[in-house]
UniProtKB/TrEMBL annotation:
Organism this protein belongs to: Akkermansia muciniphila
Pfam families referenced in this protein's UniProt entry, alphabetically: Alginate_lyase
A GO CC term attached to the entry: periplasmic space
Any GO MF annotation of the entry: lyase activity
Source domain of life: Bacteria
Alginate lyase domain sequence ranges: 34-312
Keywords for the protein's UniProt record, in alphabetical order: Lyase, Signal
Keyword Signal carried by entry: yes
Name listed for the protein in its UniProt record: Alginate lyase domain-containing protein
Length: 340
């Protein structure tokens, strides 16, 4: 299954704006983590990633107290003061460069991707620490993030697909690839042992699925196929928590934008389908739970509303966002290039 199938629709706005300003990813300047200002008491060091919860706002009834959540209302000002835009630019640019290299073997794309990878994973002065301990901090609640911050790296599966393509190139030396692998191994260990990781592992919505997708892809990339298969099996075993027998996604239908979140969660399932099929399980998307749920049922539930957006019965915006590309029938059978 081809890497470009993962050019999903939820490309972060900051990364999109970054690409619009700088044009080709070949021209985009390499940026790294920003200066730490400890806006809400967090103790992050210079090379530690910090972001603030997207839907949290000051409470007018308690101006000096904890911020409160308002689902669907993004606090862009708060996010503009953290590292989330920088992370989005890094992940998005490397994904674009990896895709460009995979399609036409452009050595310039590979070389530029290597510069980004060295800045974020290798160079001591700019290397990000391999954790998301301070991701999506909720102001006034605690000075570290919870499991919800792990979703800031929700595109990790695409990113690892890009790295797989770039391994065929001159992006990095063999020793540098080892250092990238060491960073990813440390991050995987943090994901599976930290307080934040354990919290994400217990969630019942899209956060859980993107967590499992990250873990499964990291295990696969690091050569731990047995662990990757275990993550895939776990996601299927927990499917009834996420997909109803009729194909709806009850946890996402509760949100202020249920269509957007239903499609967004399908992206996580799409990652898992892609990995399962690559590992030889061609039936993963169709397999039903004892209750009758399946990934394909979740797709089929949304397709009629995608064709007729005005019939979407839930609140929020119309059903006008496309489904993840992996679930588009016309994508089937496209060839993928391999290292020669």
């Amino acid at each position: 299954m081809a890497f470009w199938r993962f050019w999903f629709i939820f490309f972060p706005f900051t990364a999109l704006l970054f690409s619009m300003v700088h044009g080709s990813p070949l021209n985009a300047p390499v940026i790294t983590l920003g200066e730490k200002k400890s806006l809400f008491g967090e103790k992050a060091q210079a090379n530690e990633y910090v972001s603030y919860a997207l839907y949290y706002w000051p409470d007018p009834a308690n101006p000096d107290g904890p911020y409160k959540p308002i689902d669907g209302k993004k606090n862009k000002r708060l996010r503009s003061m953290d590292d989330s835009g920088r992370m989005a630019a890094f992940i998005g640019t490397v994904c674009n460069l990896g895709r460009q290299y995979k399609l036409d073997r452009d050595p310039q794309a590979a070389s530029r991707a290597g510069q980004w990878l060295k800045a974020w994973f290798i160079a001591p002065a700019t290397r990000m620490q391999p954790h998301l301990k301070y991701a999506q901090i909720r102001p006034g609640h605690r000075t570290e993030g919870d499991g919800g911050g792990i979703i800031d790296l929700y595109r990790m599966p695409e990113f690892l697909e890009a790295l797989t393509a770039l391994k065929c190139s001159n992006a990095l030396t063999a020793e540098e690839w080892k250092q990238v692998g060491a960073w990813l191994n440390q991050y995987y260990t943090w994901l599976t042992t930290s307080r934040q990781g354990r919290h994400a592992h217990t969630r019942s919505n899209n956060h859980y699925l993107f967590y499992v997708a990250q873990c499964a892809y990291l295990a696969s990339f690091l050569g731990r196929s047995h662990e990757a298969a275990q993550w895939l099996a776990e996601a299927f075993a927990n499917m009834d928590r996420h997909i109803a027998p009729d194909g709806s996604q009850p946890e996402e239908l509760k949100r202020a934008e249920p269509w957007q979140y239903s499609v967004y969660t399908l992206q996580a399932w799409g990652y898992l389908v892609h990995l399962a099929e690559r590992m030889g399980d061609k039936n993963y998307r169709y397999r039903k739970t004892p209750a009758g749920a399946s990934i394909q049922k979740a797709v089929d539930y949304l397709l009629p509303y995608r064709a007729n957006p005005e019939t979407w019965p839930w609140q929020g915006s119309r059903a006008n966002t496309p489904l993840p590309a992996i679930f588009e029938p016309e994508q089937a059978g496209r060839p993928q290039r391999k290292c020669s």
